[in-house]
Amino acid sequence: MTNRRSDYLALLGLTEWVRRDQAGREEPVLADVVAPAPEPVPASVTAVADPPEAPAALPLVDVAARPAEAAPGPADVCHASAPRDWEALAAQVAACTACPLHETRTQTVFGVGQRQADLMLVGEGPGEQEDLRGEPFVGAAGQLLDQMLAAIGQSRASTVYIANVVKCRPPGNRKPHAAEAAACRDYLEAQIELVRPRLIVALGQVAAAGLLGEDAPVGRMRQGSHVHPASQTPVIVTYHPAYYLRQPLEKRKGWEDLKRIRALLNSPR
Questions:
Q1: How far apart are CA 59 and CA 65, in angstroms?
Q2: Which of 59, 123, 185, 242 has the most CB atoms lying inside 10 A of its own CB?
Q3: Alpha helices in 97-161 (DSSP H)
Q4: Which among 125, 129, 100 is positioned nearest to 110, based on CA atoms?
Q5: What burial letters (b/e) apply to 227-252, b meaning 16+ CB within 10 Å?
Q6: d(Cα 265, Cα 40) in Å, to the nearest integer?
Q7: CA dihedral of residues 73, 78, 80, 86 (deg, nearest 10)
Q8: What is the Cα–Cα distance from 72 to 188, expressed in whole angstroms?
Q9: How would you classify the pairing of strands 160-164 and 226-228?
């Protein structure tokens, strides 16, 4: 059993497994993996080849029953004008001055990955490293996200598109303000329209609010079924990878969500 467990951990890029009842032991400095499945599998079986769980039903929610969105603020000036082709959209984002975030950015962070992807991930906004490099999720949280995607056979390079609710870094890595998210909303909507994913995953509460207009805790929203109103694309809400860096004992929740994502992507069209 020990060898089988070691093989499985190596398959996911893990270096150590900590039992929940040993939570008092010191965690690795950067335990950049999500908790493994309860039963180890032989090394000859890939993470994607596990028999997927039965896909959870994703009933369409009553869009009319959603809470009314806040009225757009003065910064909400780009809407209706975001182009629906990649090059023109990227150019407009790069030149955007619709909200005060443009005054402190190094550069805009448009998005990265496969532009015709079944899976689209949405985060809240760029951090310091993303602002410097112009790419979302490149710091410690981004490294963990790559490990999580690899565990279900996905990759930002070939199968996933990643974007943020806002395209400029909020000062001090604070959460984006509502007016800032509103100023960028049509950019994100245009990206979703261009990618046409089968599934959208909201990484954290800010992303969920930007996509769904629902102001509820992630712990509550991850248990439900959601759809993106404009495209009617199913949405799964999960924790931001940075949450697992702060709360490593919560990683099993991330693994549960990853299995749900995998099952939905593997389900018949």
A1: 14
A2: 123
A3: 128-133, 140-151
A4: 125
A5: bbbeeebbbbbbbbbbbbbeebeebe
A6: 22
A7: -140
A8: 16
A9: unpaired
β-partners of residue 113 are 161
Going by C-alpha positions, the residue among 121, 102, 95 that lies closest to residue 170 is: 102
Distance CA(128)–CA(246), nearest Å, equals 18
Q: How far apart are CA 200 and CA 214, in angstroms?
A: 15
pLDDT category of residue 212 using cuts at 50, 70 and 90: very high
- If we measure between CA atoms, which residue out of 242, 225, 243 comes closest to residue 234? 225
Q: What is the per-residue pLDDT across 27-48, written as a single tens digit (0 to 9) for each?
A: 333 334 444 444 343 333 233 3
The values of phi and psi at residue 148, to 5°, are: -65, -45
Task: Specify the residue for token string 């893990």.
Answer: 14
Q: Which of 229, 223, 234 is nearest to 185 (CA)?
A: 229
Checking if the pLDDT of 24 tops 70, the result is no
pTM above 0.85, yes or no: no
Question: CA dist 165 to 97, 161, 255, Å?
Answer: 16, 13, 24
The tokens for 203 are 């990484």
pLDDT at 168: 98
Q: How do beta strands 119-123 and 199-203 pair?
A: parallel
- H/E run at residue 236: strand 233-238
Alpha-carbon span 199 to 225, nearest angstrom: 12
Task: Name the pairing type of β-strands 226-228 and 233-238.
Answer: antiparallel
Of 166, 87, 86, 92, the C-alpha closest to 125 is: 166
